[in-house]
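Memo subject: From amino acid sequence to discrete backbone structure tokens
Action wanted: Derive the backbone structure tokens from the amino acid sequence.
How to read it: Take the token row as a discrete description of the fold.
Attached in line: The record itself begins immediately under this heading.
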Amino acid sequence: MKSRLVASAAISALVLLGATGCTFISPQATTIEYSASDGVNVSDSDGPIDVRNAFIVANEDGSVGNFIAGVVNPTGDEATLTITIAGLDPMTVTVPANRTISFGADGEEPLRIDGLDTMPGATIEMHFQSGDGAGTKTEVPVLDGSLSYYADLVPTESTPEPTPKPMPTDTAAPAPQE
């Protein structure tokens, strides 16, 4: 009778260990970092600036794109980020101290990329460099405007000219001089 009880306890322990033991050797999914959106995150380990949720929304033929991202400067000093795509002129962004610039959101215009030559659905290699470091190369997704929340980010064929702002006028009459 005692041997049955011991055997039953041993089998129960083996079943319990077999059912829960896989968590000892598999990685915990909640500790794996990933981009929870369509874009990618870029951390330049040598520089002060981080790029969050970076992606490009391109027109139908992929000739023009708008770079969309949050550019974060967590330092107390103004910093510059240089973004390079092979064959195109580098783009430079200056970010004030302790600020985030959200290209394509919060009233900020996206960065226009003429001569993109990458179809939506593909990725393009971009180089992000800030500070004195060598920078980081990352594959950035190129999307289209088929999703309603990206439709207004598709670049137009021509770059609109900035509208001039009227100069403020002084409405007070000048004081008479004697």
Observations:
- The two ends are 124 Å apart (CA to CA).
